[in-house]
Amino acid sequence: MPGMGSLADITPPIALGALDGRYRAAVAPLVDHLSEAALNRARVHVEIEWLIHLTDRRVVPGVRQLTETEIARLRAIVAEFGADDIAELAEIERETVHDVKAVEYYLKRRMPDILGEDSEQLAELVHFCCTSEDINNLCYALMVKGAVQTVWLPKAEDLLEQLAALAAEHAEVPMLSRTHGQAATPTTLGKELAVSVHRLRRQVRRVAATDFLGKLNGATGTYGAHVAAVPEANWPAISNTFVTDRLGLTWNPLTTQIESHDWQAELYSDVARFNRILHNLCTDVWTYISLGYFAQVRGQGTVGSSTMPHKVNPIRFENAEANLEVSNALFDVLSSTLVQSRMQRDLTDSSMQRNIGTAFGHGMLALDNVCRGLAGLDAVPAQMAADLDGNWEVLGEPIQSAMRALGAQGFGGMENPYERLKELTRGRRIDGDDLREFVRGLGLPTEVEQRMLDLTPQTYVGLAPELARRHL
Description:
By secondary structure, this protein is mainly α. The protein has 3 domains: 26-127, Fumarase C, Chain B, domain 1 (Orthogonal Bundle), CATH 1.10.275; 133-300 and 311-381, Fumarase C, Chain A, domain 2 (Up-down Bundle); 392-456, Orthogonal Bundle (Ribonucleotide Reductase Protein R1, domain 1), CATH 1.10.40. The chain has helices at 24-27, 31-34, 36-56, 68-79, 83-96, 99-115, 119-123, 132-169, 189-208, 224-229, 235-246, 262-291, 315-337, 348-353, 356-375, 381-389, 396-408, 417-425, 432-440, 446-454, 464-470, and strands spanning 174-179, 182-188, 213-214, 250-251, 294-296, 377-379. The strands form 3 sheets. It has a two-stranded antiparallel ribbon with strand order 1-2. Strand 1 and strand 2 form a beta hairpin. Helix 8 packs parallel to helix 15. The longest helix is centred in the first third of the chain and has 38 residues, at 132-169.
């Protein structure tokens, strides 16, 4: 705006996005895994482990093994990686205009101090026979694995534990269902929450079972440079043991220049599906709040509305909805684009993968909001009971079903049960007295009649309590 100073010049820099601004605390654990700095640290880690692997296996004839002290000092570079290293890499990259090459030069600077007299020769094994994608694909696999296993999965499990406890607590609280938004067969609050637990848990199991793939096979996946340099080595076996034993990933034996990213697409689709189920839970809970089935606990120091003092808005669930939608938009584009690459290589995946942290970040923010939102809810059984008491017509279903069963057994007078109940209930409200009078006029066997007379909307919940407990 005219006449105003530039916010871009303020120090420390102001975040452009909400994740690094107002929501930083909720997503901060992801920085260790999915930030630009984490990517560079992972590159340093992979390059160092490749050097150790080559010398440990004596792949190149005449090259000595590293001592335990040297290995420890090399690995300390990764362990102690911090702000000064980030700045140094940035300085080198301004010269190389290549991020992976900058890491190679960064490490070679340190070789004389660590490896001694023959450091110049050993330093040639840094990035030996590697294309940038050999390093990057392994880094992303390690980074995403770390983010999923140490950040996302624990948060998802916390949500499931919280939601399951809420479902168990309210397993027997009767509640009117609304199919198509209309009054329908009653259920229990706990059973409906248990459905979400069951669905979300299935996706969590899929995410937990992810194979994180990696490859190291050269510029076009042929080990061309490797065989040219050291033809007697079993390069596929060396690559396999490096990826699996040293890095703890799953080896991909056949690729172009890039690891095909299929595992990433599979993972992001599973996380996106989890997000969509969670979004469904948010909209349902929002609706239950609007119906008065849940009260939002007051006294949490929040302002519900800036102008209406009585309101406590369901902002946690609305915030979660928005962030789940942003997260899924990113996961969807990641899933659809990462599996494609022109011929043996293009760089679209390089730019695309820089958004992985943002995709997980918005998902983590949503998880945080849902957990906080659920913690602020109190069920209101009295409101659910009042809603049930105002909808006795839902008992038309069990009565006509009992009549059908009797008709199938040859019991007389049970003709057209559906139509008779439709005439009684459709388009108008009835109360308990209306329904009981109708039941008494049906000529049901005594035992069946009494069962129907004893039925109320509150008790017509079938196996809902048992189902809720059994599947939590």
